[in-house]
Amino acid sequence: ISISYGAFCGWPSASFLELAADDSPLDCPLSHRDQGSVASAVSLGGLFGTIFFAWLADKVGRRKSLLWMALPNLLGWIIIPFARNPLHLIIARFIGGAAGGGIFAVIPIYVVELASDSMRGVLGTFLVLTCSGGILLAFILGYYFNYVTVSWIVSTFSFVFVGSFWFMPETPQFLASRNKVKEAEYSLRYYRNIRANPAKELNEDLQQELQKLKETDKVDSKEDSKDNDSDSNAVTWADFAEPKTRKAFLIGLGLIAFNQLCGCFTMLNYTAVIFEQAGSSLPSTVAAIIVGAIQVLGNYVSTLLVERLGRKILLLISAVGIGFGQSAMATYSYFQVLGYQVESFSWVPVAGFSFMLFLAALGLLSLPFLVISELLPAKVRSTANMILMSVLWFISTCSIKLMPLFTEMLGMHGTVFLFASFSFSAAIFIAIFLPETKGKTVEE
Known about the structure:
By secondary structure, this protein is mainly α. 77% of the residues lie in helices and 0% in strands. The chain starts with a helix and ends in an 11-residue tail after the last helix. 53% of the residues are buried.
Protein backbone atom coordinates (compact mmCIF):
# COMPACT_ATOMS: atom_id res chain seq x y z
CA ILE A 1 0.00 0.00 0.00
CA SER A 2 2.96 2.33 0.56
CA ILE A 3 4.10 1.66 -3.02
CA SER A 4 0.68 2.75 -4.24
CA TYR A 5 0.82 5.90 -2.14
CA GLY A 6 4.32 6.63 -3.41
CA ALA A 7 2.95 6.47 -6.96
CA PHE A 8 0.26 8.90 -5.82
CA CYS A 9 3.01 11.32 -4.75
CA GLY A 10 4.88 10.95 -8.04
CA TRP A 11 1.76 11.15 -10.20
CA PRO A 12 1.66 15.00 -10.49
CA SER A 13 5.19 15.17 -11.83
CA ALA A 14 4.42 12.55 -14.46
CA SER A 15 1.00 13.98 -15.38
CA PHE A 16 1.04 17.78 -14.98
CA LEU A 17 2.82 18.37 -18.29
CA GLU A 18 0.09 16.38 -20.05
CA LEU A 19 -2.77 17.99 -18.13
CA ALA A 20 -1.42 21.53 -18.56
CA ALA A 21 -0.86 21.23 -22.32
CA ASP A 22 -3.12 22.94 -24.85
CA ASP A 23 -4.55 19.55 -25.83
CA SER A 24 -5.26 18.64 -22.18
CA PRO A 25 -7.78 15.79 -21.75
CA LEU A 26 -9.53 17.95 -19.13
CA ASP A 27 -12.19 20.50 -20.02
CA CYS A 28 -9.49 23.16 -19.73
CA PRO A 29 -5.70 22.96 -19.19
CA LEU A 30 -4.40 23.07 -15.61
CA SER A 31 -3.15 26.52 -14.64
CA HIS A 32 -0.22 27.04 -12.24
CA ARG A 33 -2.70 27.77 -9.45
CA ASP A 34 -4.68 24.62 -10.28
CA GLN A 35 -1.48 22.58 -10.22
CA GLY A 36 -0.72 23.83 -6.72
CA SER A 37 -4.23 22.99 -5.52
CA VAL A 38 -4.21 19.50 -7.06
CA ALA A 39 -0.73 18.68 -5.77
CA SER A 40 -1.37 19.97 -2.25
CA ALA A 41 -4.72 18.17 -1.88
CA VAL A 42 -2.85 14.94 -1.11
CA SER A 43 -1.29 16.57 1.95
CA LEU A 44 -4.60 18.01 3.11
CA GLY A 45 -6.07 14.54 2.85
CA GLY A 46 -3.06 13.26 4.75
CA LEU A 47 -3.93 15.60 7.62
CA PHE A 48 -7.42 14.09 7.84
CA GLY A 49 -6.14 10.54 7.37
CA THR A 50 -3.55 10.92 10.12
CA ILE A 51 -6.17 11.90 12.69
CA PHE A 52 -8.72 9.29 11.65
CA PHE A 53 -6.45 6.27 11.18
CA ALA A 54 -4.36 6.98 14.29
CA TRP A 55 -7.62 7.03 16.27
CA LEU A 56 -8.78 3.87 14.50
CA ALA A 57 -5.47 2.13 15.24
CA ASP A 58 -6.01 2.64 18.97
CA LYS A 59 -9.62 1.50 18.80
CA VAL A 60 -9.51 -1.60 16.57
CA GLY A 61 -5.79 -2.30 16.29
CA ARG A 62 -2.94 -1.54 13.93
CA ARG A 63 -3.72 -4.41 11.56
CA LYS A 64 -7.37 -3.54 10.93
CA SER A 65 -6.54 0.14 10.62
CA LEU A 66 -4.02 -0.67 7.88
CA LEU A 67 -6.52 -2.86 6.05
CA TRP A 68 -9.09 -0.05 6.01
CA MET A 69 -6.53 2.25 4.37
CA ALA A 70 -6.86 0.23 1.19
CA LEU A 71 -10.33 1.72 0.61
CA PRO A 72 -9.40 5.43 0.26
CA ASN A 73 -6.24 4.37 -1.56
CA LEU A 74 -8.34 2.55 -4.15
CA LEU A 75 -10.95 5.30 -4.45
CA GLY A 76 -8.28 7.94 -5.02
CA TRP A 77 -6.96 6.12 -8.06
CA ILE A 78 -10.36 5.16 -9.48
CA ILE A 79 -11.67 8.75 -9.50
CA ILE A 80 -8.74 10.13 -11.55
CA PRO A 81 -9.70 8.53 -14.92
CA PHE A 82 -13.17 10.06 -14.69
CA ALA A 83 -11.95 13.55 -13.72
CA ARG A 84 -12.93 16.37 -16.08
CA ASN A 85 -11.82 19.43 -14.15
CA PRO A 86 -9.37 20.40 -11.37
CA LEU A 87 -12.01 19.93 -8.65
CA HIS A 88 -12.39 16.25 -9.53
CA LEU A 89 -8.63 15.78 -9.31
CA ILE A 90 -8.52 17.61 -5.98
CA ILE A 91 -11.18 15.26 -4.57
CA ALA A 92 -9.29 12.21 -5.82
CA ARG A 93 -6.02 13.47 -4.38
CA PHE A 94 -7.65 14.31 -1.04
CA ILE A 95 -9.11 10.80 -0.68
CA GLY A 96 -5.87 9.11 -1.71
CA GLY A 97 -3.93 11.41 0.59
CA ALA A 98 -6.05 10.24 3.53
CA ALA A 99 -4.61 6.77 3.01
CA GLY A 100 -1.12 8.28 2.97
CA GLY A 101 -1.77 10.03 6.27
CA GLY A 102 -2.75 6.73 7.81
CA ILE A 103 0.28 4.99 6.34
CA PHE A 104 2.76 7.40 7.94
CA ALA A 105 0.82 7.51 11.22
CA VAL A 106 0.33 3.78 11.77
CA ILE A 107 3.09 1.86 9.96
CA PRO A 108 5.98 3.31 12.05
CA ILE A 109 4.11 2.31 15.23
CA TYR A 110 3.32 -1.10 13.73
CA VAL A 111 7.01 -1.68 12.96
CA VAL A 112 8.29 -0.54 16.37
CA GLU A 113 5.79 -2.79 18.17
CA LEU A 114 6.58 -5.97 16.22
CA ALA A 115 10.28 -5.67 15.33
CA SER A 116 13.18 -6.87 17.43
CA ASP A 117 15.70 -4.25 18.56
CA SER A 118 18.30 -5.43 16.05
CA MET A 119 15.89 -5.24 13.09
CA ARG A 120 13.86 -2.18 14.06
CA GLY A 121 16.04 0.32 12.23
CA VAL A 122 16.20 -1.64 8.97
CA LEU A 123 12.46 -2.36 8.91
CA GLY A 124 11.71 1.25 9.80
CA THR A 125 13.42 2.49 6.64
CA PHE A 126 11.33 0.24 4.40
CA LEU A 127 8.33 2.57 4.63
CA VAL A 128 10.05 5.37 2.75
CA LEU A 129 11.94 2.88 0.53
CA THR A 130 8.67 1.44 -0.77
CA CYS A 131 7.19 4.93 -1.17
CA SER A 132 10.23 5.90 -3.21
CA GLY A 133 9.73 2.79 -5.31
CA GLY A 134 6.16 3.90 -5.92
CA ILE A 135 7.33 7.36 -6.98
CA LEU A 136 9.78 5.83 -9.46
CA LEU A 137 7.02 3.54 -10.72
CA ALA A 138 4.78 6.56 -11.38
CA PHE A 139 7.60 8.28 -13.30
CA ILE A 140 8.21 5.20 -15.46
CA LEU A 141 4.54 4.49 -16.12
CA GLY A 142 3.97 8.19 -16.87
CA TYR A 143 6.66 8.03 -19.55
CA TYR A 144 5.03 5.11 -21.37
CA PHE A 145 1.31 5.59 -20.65
CA ASN A 146 -1.16 8.44 -20.23
CA TYR A 147 -2.39 9.38 -16.78
CA VAL A 148 -5.63 7.37 -17.11
CA THR A 149 -3.85 4.09 -17.82
CA VAL A 150 -1.41 4.75 -14.98
CA SER A 151 -4.34 5.17 -12.58
CA TRP A 152 -5.93 1.88 -13.54
CA ILE A 153 -2.64 -0.01 -13.27
CA VAL A 154 -1.75 1.29 -9.80
CA SER A 155 -5.32 0.87 -8.48
CA THR A 156 -4.78 -2.91 -8.52
CA PHE A 157 -2.19 -2.57 -5.74
CA SER A 158 -4.92 -2.08 -3.14
CA PHE A 159 -6.31 -5.55 -3.87
CA VAL A 160 -2.82 -7.06 -3.73
CA PHE A 161 -2.23 -5.45 -0.34
CA VAL A 162 -5.48 -6.67 1.21
CA GLY A 163 -4.94 -10.19 -0.13
CA SER A 164 -1.39 -10.42 1.24
CA PHE A 165 -1.89 -8.59 4.55
CA TRP A 166 -5.23 -10.13 5.56
CA PHE A 167 -3.64 -13.09 7.39
CA MET A 168 -1.08 -11.09 9.40
CA PRO A 169 -1.66 -11.04 13.18
CA GLU A 170 -1.97 -7.93 15.33
CA THR A 171 1.17 -6.59 17.04
CA PRO A 172 2.12 -8.26 20.34
CA GLN A 173 2.21 -4.98 22.25
CA PHE A 174 -1.30 -3.93 21.20
CA LEU A 175 -2.72 -7.35 22.08
CA ALA A 176 -1.04 -7.26 25.49
CA SER A 177 -2.49 -3.80 26.13
CA ARG A 178 -5.93 -5.34 25.54
CA ASN A 179 -5.27 -8.16 28.07
CA LYS A 180 -4.86 -10.78 25.31
CA VAL A 181 -1.62 -12.37 26.49
CA LYS A 182 -2.05 -15.71 24.69
CA GLU A 183 -2.72 -13.94 21.39
CA ALA A 184 0.25 -11.67 22.11
CA GLU A 185 2.52 -14.68 22.61
CA TYR A 186 1.29 -16.22 19.34
CA SER A 187 1.91 -12.93 17.57
CA LEU A 188 5.41 -12.70 19.05
CA ARG A 189 6.16 -16.24 17.88
CA TYR A 190 4.79 -15.43 14.42
CA TYR A 191 6.89 -12.32 13.93
CA ARG A 192 10.01 -14.08 15.29
CA ASN A 193 9.41 -16.95 12.83
CA ILE A 194 9.12 -19.70 15.44
CA ARG A 195 5.40 -20.36 15.00
CA ALA A 196 5.86 -23.69 13.20
CA ASN A 197 6.38 -25.55 16.48
CA PRO A 198 4.13 -24.15 19.24
CA ALA A 199 5.91 -26.25 21.86
CA LYS A 200 9.31 -24.81 21.01
CA GLU A 201 10.84 -22.89 23.87
CA LEU A 202 11.47 -19.20 23.43
CA ASN A 203 15.08 -18.14 23.80
CA GLU A 204 16.09 -15.85 26.65
CA ASP A 205 15.59 -12.60 24.72
CA LEU A 206 12.13 -13.59 23.54
CA GLN A 207 11.18 -14.75 27.04
CA GLN A 208 12.12 -11.28 28.29
CA GLU A 209 9.97 -9.72 25.55
CA LEU A 210 7.03 -11.90 26.53
CA GLN A 211 7.53 -11.10 30.20
CA LYS A 212 7.35 -7.40 29.40
CA LEU A 213 4.07 -8.01 27.56
CA LYS A 214 2.67 -9.90 30.57
CA GLU A 215 3.73 -7.10 32.89
CA THR A 216 1.91 -4.66 30.62
CA ASP A 217 -1.16 -6.86 30.89
CA LYS A 218 -0.95 -6.89 34.71
CA VAL A 219 -0.55 -3.13 34.91
CA ASP A 220 -3.53 -2.60 32.63
CA SER A 221 -5.64 -5.03 34.67
CA LYS A 222 -4.81 -3.26 37.95
CA GLU A 223 -5.60 0.13 36.49
CA ASP A 224 -8.89 -1.12 35.08
CA SER A 225 -9.88 -2.54 38.48
CA LYS A 226 -9.18 0.81 40.12
CA ASP A 227 -11.55 2.70 37.88
CA ASN A 228 -14.07 0.78 35.82
CA ASP A 229 -15.98 3.92 34.87
CA SER A 230 -13.15 5.68 33.04
CA ASP A 231 -10.40 4.85 30.62
CA SER A 232 -7.34 4.66 32.85
CA ASN A 233 -5.06 4.50 29.83
CA ALA A 234 -6.37 7.73 28.35
CA VAL A 235 -3.64 10.15 27.34
CA THR A 236 -3.81 13.53 29.07
CA TRP A 237 -1.86 16.79 28.84
CA ALA A 238 -0.12 15.77 32.06
CA ASP A 239 1.53 12.92 30.18
CA PHE A 240 3.06 15.42 27.74
CA ALA A 241 4.20 17.64 30.62
CA GLU A 242 6.53 14.90 31.87
CA PRO A 243 10.08 16.14 31.04
CA LYS A 244 11.24 13.13 29.00
CA THR A 245 8.02 13.00 27.03
CA ARG A 246 8.07 16.74 26.38
CA LYS A 247 11.66 16.60 25.16
CA ALA A 248 10.96 13.65 22.86
CA PHE A 249 7.89 15.39 21.47
CA LEU A 250 9.75 18.65 20.78
CA ILE A 251 12.59 16.81 19.06
CA GLY A 252 10.00 14.99 16.96
CA LEU A 253 8.34 18.29 16.12
CA GLY A 254 11.65 19.70 14.90
CA LEU A 255 12.38 16.63 12.76
CA ILE A 256 8.91 16.72 11.22
CA ALA A 257 9.11 20.43 10.47
CA PHE A 258 12.50 20.14 8.74
CA ASN A 259 11.34 16.99 6.92
CA GLN A 260 8.98 19.25 4.96
CA LEU A 261 10.67 22.66 5.14
CA CYS A 262 13.79 21.28 3.44
CA GLY A 263 11.60 21.27 0.32
CA CYS A 264 12.51 17.82 -1.02
CA PHE A 265 8.99 16.42 -0.90
CA THR A 266 7.58 19.66 -2.32
CA MET A 267 10.04 19.73 -5.21
CA LEU A 268 9.41 16.04 -5.86
CA ASN A 269 5.82 16.87 -6.80
CA TYR A 270 7.10 19.23 -9.51
CA THR A 271 10.12 17.25 -10.71
CA ALA A 272 9.35 17.33 -14.43
CA VAL A 273 8.21 20.98 -14.26
CA ILE A 274 11.41 22.00 -12.44
CA PHE A 275 13.63 20.40 -15.07
CA GLU A 276 11.63 21.96 -17.88
CA GLN A 277 11.96 25.43 -16.33
CA ALA A 278 15.65 24.88 -15.60
CA GLY A 279 16.32 24.20 -19.27
CA SER A 280 17.84 20.76 -18.70
CA SER A 281 19.22 19.09 -21.85
CA LEU A 282 17.41 15.86 -20.93
CA PRO A 283 13.66 15.45 -21.58
CA SER A 284 11.93 16.35 -18.31
CA THR A 285 10.18 12.98 -17.96
CA VAL A 286 13.46 11.09 -18.50
CA ALA A 287 15.21 13.29 -15.95
CA ALA A 288 12.42 12.54 -13.47
CA ILE A 289 12.95 8.80 -13.93
CA ILE A 290 16.68 9.19 -13.33
CA VAL A 291 16.27 11.10 -10.07
CA GLY A 292 13.51 8.70 -8.98
CA ALA A 293 15.89 5.78 -9.40
CA ILE A 294 18.57 7.65 -7.46
CA GLN A 295 16.10 8.29 -4.63
CA VAL A 296 15.34 4.57 -4.41
CA LEU A 297 19.08 3.92 -4.31
CA GLY A 298 19.43 6.41 -1.46
CA ASN A 299 16.68 4.68 0.52
CA TYR A 300 18.31 1.31 -0.06
CA VAL A 301 21.67 2.60 1.16
CA SER A 302 19.86 3.94 4.23
CA THR A 303 18.60 0.44 5.06
CA LEU A 304 22.19 -0.83 4.91
CA LEU A 305 23.72 1.91 7.04
CA VAL A 306 21.03 2.74 9.61
CA GLU A 307 22.18 0.03 12.05
CA ARG A 308 25.87 0.58 11.27
CA LEU A 309 26.33 4.35 11.36
CA GLY A 310 23.26 5.18 13.42
CA ARG A 311 20.30 7.51 12.93
CA LYS A 312 21.94 10.78 13.98
CA ILE A 313 24.97 10.67 11.68
CA LEU A 314 22.82 9.72 8.67
CA LEU A 315 20.40 12.56 9.39
CA LEU A 316 23.27 15.01 9.79
CA ILE A 317 24.96 13.96 6.53
CA SER A 318 21.59 14.06 4.80
CA ALA A 319 20.69 17.60 5.90
CA VAL A 320 24.07 19.07 4.92
CA GLY A 321 24.07 17.24 1.58
CA ILE A 322 20.56 18.45 0.75
CA GLY A 323 21.63 22.03 1.40
CA PHE A 324 24.63 21.74 -0.95
CA GLY A 325 22.59 20.06 -3.70
CA GLN A 326 19.92 22.74 -3.52
CA SER A 327 22.54 25.49 -3.51
CA ALA A 328 24.03 24.11 -6.74
CA MET A 329 20.60 24.01 -8.40
CA ALA A 330 19.71 27.52 -7.25
CA THR A 331 23.07 28.95 -8.37
CA TYR A 332 22.62 27.49 -11.86
CA SER A 333 19.10 28.91 -12.08
CA TYR A 334 20.28 32.32 -10.84
CA PHE A 335 23.07 32.55 -13.43
CA GLN A 336 20.52 31.57 -16.07
CA VAL A 337 18.27 34.45 -15.00
CA LEU A 338 21.21 36.88 -15.13
CA GLY A 339 21.79 35.93 -18.75
CA TYR A 340 25.04 34.01 -18.43
CA GLN A 341 25.78 31.28 -20.96
CA VAL A 342 25.10 28.16 -18.91
CA GLU A 343 24.23 25.74 -21.70
CA SER A 344 27.46 23.81 -21.20
CA PHE A 345 26.43 23.25 -17.56
CA SER A 346 22.91 22.00 -18.35
CA TRP A 347 23.75 18.82 -16.43
CA VAL A 348 23.84 20.77 -13.15
CA PRO A 349 20.04 20.74 -12.45
CA VAL A 350 19.83 16.97 -12.90
CA ALA A 351 23.02 16.35 -10.91
CA GLY A 352 22.04 18.75 -8.12
CA PHE A 353 18.49 17.42 -7.87
CA SER A 354 19.74 13.81 -7.95
CA PHE A 355 22.34 14.53 -5.26
CA MET A 356 19.69 16.27 -3.15
CA LEU A 357 17.22 13.40 -3.39
CA PHE A 358 19.88 10.75 -2.76
CA LEU A 359 20.97 12.46 0.46
CA ALA A 360 17.35 13.18 1.42
CA ALA A 361 16.42 9.52 0.98
CA LEU A 362 19.46 8.59 3.06
CA GLY A 363 18.13 10.35 6.13
CA LEU A 364 15.95 13.45 6.36
CA LEU A 365 13.06 12.07 4.28
CA SER A 366 13.21 8.52 5.62
CA LEU A 367 14.45 8.35 9.21
CA PRO A 368 12.36 10.92 11.18
CA PHE A 369 9.34 8.58 11.26
CA LEU A 370 11.42 5.76 12.75
CA VAL A 371 13.27 8.00 15.21
CA ILE A 372 10.05 9.60 16.46
CA SER A 373 8.43 6.22 17.13
CA GLU A 374 11.58 5.14 19.01
CA LEU A 375 11.79 8.30 21.13
CA LEU A 376 8.14 8.55 22.19
CA PRO A 377 6.99 6.61 25.30
CA ALA A 378 4.55 3.78 24.60
CA LYS A 379 1.59 5.43 26.34
CA VAL A 380 1.64 8.62 24.26
CA ARG A 381 3.20 7.13 21.12
CA SER A 382 0.02 6.89 19.06
CA THR A 383 -1.45 10.25 20.17
CA ALA A 384 1.84 12.13 19.83
CA ASN A 385 2.54 10.55 16.46
CA MET A 386 -0.92 11.65 15.30
CA ILE A 387 -0.21 15.24 16.35
CA LEU A 388 3.21 15.27 14.72
CA MET A 389 1.96 13.75 11.47
CA SER A 390 -0.84 16.32 11.42
CA VAL A 391 1.78 19.06 11.65
CA LEU A 392 3.70 17.38 8.83
CA TRP A 393 0.69 17.32 6.52
CA PHE A 394 -0.20 20.92 7.36
CA ILE A 395 3.29 22.14 6.47
CA SER A 396 3.30 19.92 3.39
CA THR A 397 -0.04 21.31 2.22
CA CYS A 398 1.15 24.89 2.57
CA SER A 399 4.53 24.33 0.91
CA ILE A 400 3.17 22.38 -2.07
CA LYS A 401 0.32 24.83 -2.56
CA LEU A 402 2.64 27.84 -2.38
CA MET A 403 5.48 26.40 -4.48
CA PRO A 404 4.13 27.78 -7.82
CA LEU A 405 3.50 31.17 -6.19
CA PHE A 406 7.00 31.28 -4.66
CA THR A 407 8.59 30.49 -8.01
CA GLU A 408 6.64 33.37 -9.59
CA MET A 409 7.59 35.81 -6.82
CA LEU A 410 11.15 34.73 -5.98
CA GLY A 411 12.04 32.82 -9.10
CA MET A 412 13.15 29.20 -9.08
CA HIS A 413 16.56 30.22 -7.72
CA GLY A 414 15.12 32.20 -4.79
CA THR A 415 12.73 29.41 -3.83
CA VAL A 416 15.43 26.73 -3.87
CA PHE A 417 17.84 28.97 -1.93
CA LEU A 418 15.10 29.31 0.70
CA PHE A 419 14.80 25.53 0.94
CA ALA A 420 18.60 25.26 1.24
CA SER A 421 18.61 27.60 4.23
CA PHE A 422 16.11 25.33 6.00
CA SER A 423 18.25 22.28 5.18
CA PHE A 424 21.34 23.79 6.80
CA SER A 425 19.20 24.81 9.79
CA ALA A 426 18.05 21.19 10.09
CA ALA A 427 21.68 20.07 10.30
CA ILE A 428 22.30 22.45 13.21
CA PHE A 429 19.15 21.24 15.01
CA ILE A 430 20.10 17.57 14.58
CA ALA A 431 23.68 18.13 15.76
CA ILE A 432 22.57 19.90 18.94
CA PHE A 433 19.36 18.21 20.06
CA LEU A 434 18.96 14.72 18.57
CA PRO A 435 20.13 11.73 20.68
CA GLU A 436 21.30 8.52 19.05
CA THR A 437 18.81 5.60 19.30
CA LYS A 438 20.82 2.91 17.51
CA GLY A 439 21.23 -0.30 19.51
CA LYS A 440 18.89 0.79 22.30
CA THR A 441 15.63 -0.84 23.31
CA VAL A 442 12.38 1.09 22.95
CA GLU A 443 12.26 1.44 26.75
CA GLU A 444 15.80 2.90 26.84
